[in-house]
Design goal:
The protein is an alpha+beta fold. It is 40% helix and 31% strand. The chain is built from four helices and nine strands. Strands 5-8-9-7-6 form a five-stranded mixed beta sheet, covered by helices on one side. The longest helix is centred in the middle third of the chain and has 27 residues. The protein is elongated. Keywords: Membrane, Transmembrane, Transmembrane helix. This is PH domain-containing protein.
C-alpha cells in the first residue's frame, strides 16, 4: 500500500513539474553539444481527445448540477475543483512526455519515456544505429522479445540501437540482462541519425 501511494505521489509531482517546465519553457538540462528529440506524435491525437473531453466535462457537469441541484452550490464547487484538477492532470501527462525528450550528445544516447524511463547509453557500447520503422502487436510501452528490448510509443519504434556486446538495461520493472538491441521511437529519426553520426566511432547505417 505504501509503495503504491509513494508511486502515485511521484507521478503527481512529476506531472506538475513537467507542466511547469512546459508552461514556462524550462527544458530539461542537457550536456553541451547535445540535441533533444521528441516521440509524442503517435499518441498526440489520443491525448488531445482526452484533454478536450476533460474540458467539456467540466462545463457539462456544472450545467447539470446547476439545473438539477440548484441549491447545492458546494457540490458545484467540489465538482469544478475536481474537474479542473483532472484537466490539468491530463495536460500534465502530455507535458511529461513532451519535456522528457530523447537526448543525443557527446557522452551517448539517453532514451526516455516520460519520467518513468531514462536509459543512458554510452557510445562505446554501440555498434550501430539505424532507422527502421516497426509496428508492434503488443500494446505495452516496454517490451522484451529474446535479447531485444523495445520502448514503443503508440506501438511504434523507429530507431534500432545495436550493441557491441550484450548489456544490462535498467528498466522500470527491473534490470534486463543480455540485451543486444534496443528499439525506440522518435518523431524525427533522420535528424536523430544525422546528429548521432557526429559522435559514433563507426559509421551509422540507416
Amino acid at each position: 500500500m505504501i509503495k503504491l501511494l509513494t508511486k502515485a505521489v511521484r507521478w503527481e509531482i512529476a506531472l506538475w513539474v513537467s507542466l511547469y517546465r512546459l508552461t514556462f519553457r524550462r527544458p530539461m538540462p542537457m550536456e553541451p553539444g547535445a540535441k533533444s528529440f521528441g516521440y509524442v506524435r503517435p499518441v498526440a491525437p489520443v491525448l488531445g481527445v482526452f484533454i478536450v473531453v476533460s474540458a467539456i466535462d467540466i462545463v457539462a457537469i456544472d450545467l447539470a448540477l446547476n439545473h438539477f441541484l440548484p441549491n447545492w452550490g458546494w457540490l458545484r464547487v467540489v465538482a469544478l475543483v475536481l474537474g479542473v484538477w483532472g484537466l490539468l492532470w491530463m495536460i500534465g501527462l502530455a507535458a511529461n512526455l513532451i519535456t522528457h525528450r530523447h537526448l543525443v550528445g557527446p557522452s551517448g544516447l539517453r532514451v526516455r519515456n516520460s519520467h518513468t524511463l531514462d536509459l543512458a547509453i554510452p557510445w562505446h557500447t554501440v555498434a550501430t544505429v539505424r532507422a527502421h520503422s516497426r509496428y508492434l502487436t503488443e500494446s505495452d510501452t516496454v517490451q522484451r522479445a529474446g535479447d531485444v528490448v523495445s520502448i514503443a510509443t503508440g506501438s511504434l519504434t523507429a530507431i534500432d540501437v545495436v550493441f557491441r556486446e550484450p548489456v544490462t538495461l535498467d528498466l522500470p520493472k527491473g534490470p534486463a540482462t543480455g540485451v543486444t538491441e534496443l528499439r525506440f521511437h522518435t518523431d524525427t529519426p533522420d535528424e536523430l541519425l544525422a546528429h548521432a553520426r557526429t559522435f559514433l566511432p563507426d559509421p551509422v547505417t540507416a
